[in-house]
Amino acid sequence: MIVQATREQIGRWELRSRDCKQAVCVEGQEHARYLLSAHAGHGGECQPYQDALSAVSAALG
Predict the structure, then answer these.
(1) How many angstroms separate the CA atoms of 41 and 56, rounded?
(2) Contacts of 46 (CB under 8 A, 6+ apart)
(3) Which range marks the domain in which residue 45 is found?
């Protein structure tokens, strides 16, 4: 099953993850994928990218 985020979810994620210095509570795998995509070019100091990477790593075990 492929889960797709709604426009409302994506809008909320965009608002909550604008600041690369602020931690983000990752809501699930789709949110993690969004964050990894949206913040991929920001470098290792980007907190939303790091939070999403941690969430995906934890899910993979």
Answers:
(1) 18
(2) 20, 39
(3) 21-60
Tokens standing for 48?
Answer: 């939303």
> In tens digits, what is the pLDDT along the chain, a chain of 61 residues?
457 889 999 999 999 999 999 999 999 999 999 999 999 999 889 999 999 999 999 988 7
Tokens of residue 33, six digits? 């994928």
Two tokens at 32?
A: 């993690």
pTM comes to: 0.86
The answer as to whether 47 is a domain residue is yes
Listed residue (61, 54, 21, 18) closest to 38, CA to CA: 18
Structural domain count of the chain? 1
User: Quick one: tokens of 30?
Assistant: 């789709």
